[in-house]
Amino acid sequence: MVKQGFLNLPDEEKQRIIDAALDEFAENDFFSASLNRIIQKAGISKGSMYHYFHDKEDLYLYVLQLGMEKKRKFLTAALAQLDKPVEEMGFFESLEFQLKVSIDFALENLRLHMLIENLEHCDNRQFRAKIMERLGGELENYMGALVDRAIESGELRNDLDRDFIMHLFRLIFISYTQLFPDARHPEKVGRDRLEQEMTQLVSFLKTGLQAREQNQRKGKNVMRGVEQLPDVSQRGSAETGANREVWISRELNE
After folding, report:
1. Residue 243: which domain range?
2. Of 43, 134, 163, 171, whose Cβ has the fewest other Cβ atoms within 10 Å?
3. Secondary structure (DSSP) of 74-116
4. What is the pLDDT of residues 61-104, one digit of tens each?
5. Is the CB of residue 35 less than 8 Å from the CB of residue 56?
6. How many domains does the chain have?
7. Higher-confidence position of 34 and 72
8. 108-162, pLDDT tens digit by residue?
9. pTM, two decimal places
């Protein structure tokens, strides 16, 4: 981990080293990144670098931890601006909100976003697993608490294996660019399109994960509405079918 020598540096010097490391790790995966290039860009000697960190991996982990802490503060600030406490939000409403906050964070912190992306796409699974383990289980515990609370409150199906649900949300929170490859470069895609994709993703998840009682209630409401549709027997069958499909689709999405 970081050595005391680094912590004793003036803030300006520490930031220069961090920026040099961010530039290198954002452009290259860990194994392709060059410690010598970081040293050169930071304007320090190799001896000084080893006085600050044990090796490249320690520097890499330190920068990752800074990024995760910055993202946590970003999310906390976004939650503080909500009109209601996050505890009063439904599970899927909260999920969609947090995914969209993640988009904002990525757009405002492109180097950190690319650093995490490079780790996620690292071919060396053993290294990736080791780094994630060293980063600790904070995200895992956070997701677990969300899922457990949603199952207990009846928002999520309780007939599905918890580990399966956790694996699914781990994929969404950590590896969502595997679902949406274009999001790897959010600055090229734009916020509006990414938010639209996140909304569609959450809507899709609700169909399969929402507790059955809620889905059944919605289905009954749709069927009651279908029964109450005006008599359109005098109209063409194609028009009748189209009207019903539009109405049912609208009801299911409300």
Report:
1. 217-252
2. 163
3. HHHHHHHTSSS-GGGS-HHHHHHHHHHHHHHHHHH-HHHHHHH
4. 999 999 989 988 998 899 888 888 777 888 898 888 988 998 99
5. yes
6. 2
7. 34
8. 999 999 998 888 888 888 898 888 777 766 777 888 888 898 899 889 988 889 9
9. 0.74
- Amino acid 24 reads E
Residues 40 and 60 in one domain: yes
* Token pair listed for 137: 């289980």
Q: Measured between alpha carbons, how far is 34 from 40 in angstroms, rounded to an integer? A: 10
Amino acid letter for position 237: S
Same domain, 241 and 133: no
Burial class of residue 164, CB neighbours in 10 A (0-12, 13-18, 19+): exposed
Instruction: Please give the span between the terminal C-alpha atoms of the chain, in angstroms, as a whole number.
Output: 50
Give the C-alpha separation, 69 to 18, whole Å: 14
Identify the CATH number of the domain in which residue 72 sits: 1.10.357.10
* 223/243 same-domain check: yes
pLDDT attached to residue 64? 92
For 207, half-sphere exposure in the C-beta direction (CA atoms, 13 angstrom radius) is 8
Are residues 92 and 28 part of one domain? yes
C-alpha separations of 128 from 133, 139, 169 in Å: 9, 15, 18
pLDDT for res 10: 96
**Contact at 8 Å (CB) between 56 and 145?**
no
